[in-house]
Design goal:
Length: 123
């Protein structure tokens, strides 16, 4: 016997506390396989870049890919340091009048020749 307490009631309270407990939180899963549609949006390019890639409109990814295809086709990578690009006359119009360009700077230089929404180019 429980002096001054109801033993059955105490057991029931403890059992109810165990049942409630903490709720498990559901973690939000990232949906894989989806890409941002902005990466695939065709953008207009100016005439200098158009001469290199051969298209008036292309997505950012395709622009970079076509520029790399042009670089490889015309063998414009430096022989000793493959990170450097030695632009020819067409590519100099795009990257500026430089003897060599670092390949990591290439997307930033291309960005100046991609026209934003509304048809204005970034300068």
């Amino acid at each position: 016997m429980c002096p001054g307490r109801n033993c059955n009631n105490t057991v029931n309270i403890m059992a109810s506390r165990k049942k409630k407990g903490k709720k498990k939180r559901k973690t939000k899963r990232r949906k894989t396989g989806r890409t941002n549609p902005m990466f695939h949006k065709p953008l207009e390019v100016d005439s200098a870049l158009q001469d290199v890639i051969g298209a008036k409109k292309a997505s950012r990814g395709m622009i970079v890919k076509k520029v790399w295809d042009y670089i490889k086709k015309h063998n414009l990578q430096d022989e000793k340091n493959r990170r450097m690009i030695n632009p020819d006359a067409k590519l100099k119009k795009v990257v500026g009048n430089k003897k060599q360009v670092n390949m990591l700077k290439l997307p930033g230089l291309l960005n100046k020749h991609i026209k934003k929404d509304g048809g204005s180019s970034k300068k």
